[in-house]
Every structure is written in structure tokens, then in C-alpha cells.
Design a protein that fits this description.
- The protein is 32% helix and 24% strand.
- It has a single domain, classed as Spore Coat Polysaccharide Biosynthesis Protein SpsA, Chain A (Alpha-Beta Complex), CATH 3.90.550.
- The strands form three sheets. Strands 1, 4, 5, 6, 8, 9, 10, 11 and 12 form a nine-stranded mixed β-sheet that branches. Strands 2-3 form a two-stranded antiparallel ribbon. A two-stranded antiparallel ribbon has the order 7-13.
- The protein has helices spanning 33-43, 57-67, 83-91, 110-119, 175-189, 196-204, 225-238; strands at residues 5-10, 27-28, 31-32, 48-53, 72-75, 99-103, 106-108, 124-129, 140-143, 150-154, 162-170, 209-213, 219-221.
- Strand 9 and strand 10 form a beta hairpin.
- By secondary structure, the protein is of the alpha/beta class.
- It contains seven helices and 13 strands.
- Helix 3 packs antiparallel against helix 5 (175-189) and helix 5 crosses helix 6.
Length: 246
């Protein structure tokens, strides 16, 4: 597990948030959002962290290196396309070991890192929760009858069991298949789709993808100004529960 690499997708423009900067640099309770990503991933005990940036890349790279000198920033020149292109850029930097996929606009409490550590190993795992009220912009997940294996993910699903929290783990045994899935999705669907299409491709091919439930703890997604305000208040109130790199 110590050979795992985390890939942070952080190339987007963050248009919905209304800030003219990468979301990873948007301050939450006085610290850039990226600081919380790095703090959480350090708590997950990954060996490497690859940061895929695009919009205002030089600024993102400078702040990232100040937070973690060992971080490996990668430029996605096609950052205005879907984030599956960023995933492809990140996977190009991973020759061996497992991959922990992470989104830069998500902030997790420290206790969730323990659940991530326990779920890593072989195969692929999608992290979900079932204790949120999911809205139109949330990624819904349908499972098999046992609730243990992933079947489908879409924001438009009407029949679903849980919500995706933006973390996917791919073990070293699945890495070649994951890489191929990304390539096939881009070839077949084009570069404008999301990274979740890759795990959907694998599920459609019959690959068993486990579900790992992180319900019972708190995590934050920051897409809109009102979510940023809630995140700022939450961390100012419960900051010790959210690891950060400072």
C-alpha cells in the first residue's frame, strides 16, 4: 500500500464558484483548499502525490510546492475539456503501484483517511456515503443487490443506493485496465466527459468494483459560493478535525 500514488484533479476553471483562480487555491478558513487535500492524502499514507493542474498552472504549482516540496505538478494543456483528460494526464505519471484518485474541491475529516487506508489493496474501490440528501448536482451510485459492488453512476439516476464522494482507489492489479478504460472512453465518448466514465466502462465490462462506505463522518464539496461559505464556517468551528498541510 505504501507504493500507492494519489492523483489530484485540479485543472478546472472553477466557474461555478465565481472565483478567477483554480479551486485548489481558493481559501477556506484562511488556507487554500489544496492544503486540506494534501493534509488528508498525507493521512492516507500515500507514497507520491501527483497534482494535475491547468488553469493558472504556474500559480497552482508555486503554492503546491510551498505546501509540499515533494509534490509532482503536471500540466493538462486541455484543461477546458472534461476531467477525464486530467485523469489520463495523471495516470501517465504512474508506472506501478495503486492509484488513489482525488478531487481538489473536496475536503474530508481525518477519520475518513483511516477508512481509505483500510479499503486499499487489490481491485478497484469506489467510496460512497448514504447519509446525505442528494441533489441534482450530486453523483448518484447504483449498486448490486448486496450493496457491495458498483453498477452505475450518474447525476441523473433515479434508482440509486448511495452518493459518490469523489474518491476512487485502483489497485496495482487493475491499473492497466483502468488506463485502458480511460483511453477507450476518450476514444469513444470524446474528451468532454467526467472521470467517472472510466469506472463505468470497467463495470460495464464486468469488472468487480467494490463499494466502501464512509457514512457517519463529515466531508465538504465546494462547487458554489454557498458551499464555500458553509465550508468556511464548518472548518472555523471544527478545524482540528480536518487535516491540512501548513
Amino acid at each position: 500500500m505504501l507504493s500507492d500514488t494519489a492523483v489530484i484533479l485540479a485543472a478546472g476553471l472553477g466557474t461555478r464558484l465565481g472565483k478567477h483562480m483554480p479551486k485548489g487555491l481558493v481559501p477556506v478558513a484562511g488556507y487554500p483548499m489544496l492544503s486540506y487535500s494534501l493534509g488528508f492524502l498525507h493521512a492516507c499514507n500515500v507514497r507520491r502525490i501527483v497534482l494535475v493542474g491547468g488553469f493558472q498552472f504556474s500559480e497552482l504549482e508555486a503554492i503546491a510546492r510551498s505546501l509540499d516540496p515533494k509534490i509532482e505538478p503536471v500540466l493538462n494543456t486541455n484543461y477546458e475539456q472534461g476531467n477525464i483528460v486530467s485523469l489520463a494526464c495523471g495516470l501517465e505519471r504512474v508506472a506501478e503501484g495503486g492509484v488513489l484518485l482525488f478531487h481538489a474541491d473536496h475536503i474530508f475529516r481525518a477519520d475518513i483517511a483511516e477508512r481509505v487506508r483500510q479499503a486499499r489493496g487489490k481491485g478497484m474501490t469506489v467510496f460512497t456515503d448514504h447519509d446525505r440528501l442528494l441533489g441534482a448536482d450530486d453523483m448518484k451510485v447504483a449498486t448490486d443487490g448486496t450493496g457491495k459492488f458498483f453498477k452505475r453512476a450518474s447525476k441523473q439516476l433515479r434508482d440509486y443506493r448511495c452518493g459518490y464522494v469523489g474518491i476512487t482507489y485502483c489497485g496495482p492489479d487493475m491499473l492497466p485496465l483502468y488506463r485502458k478504460a480511460v483511453e477507450e472512453v476518450i476514444r469513444g465518448e470524446g474528451p468532454l466527459v467526467s472521470s467517472e466514465w472510466a469506472m463505468q466502462y470497467l463495470a460495464d465490462q464486468g469488472a468487480p468494483i467494490r463499494i466502501a462506505d464512509i457514512s457517519g463522518s463529515r466531508w465538504l464539496e465546494v462547487d458554489y459560493p454557498e458551499e464555500l461559505a458553509r465550508a468556511d464556517e464548518e472548518i472555523r468551528t471544527h478545524g482540528s478535525l480536518y487535516p491540512k498541510a501548513i
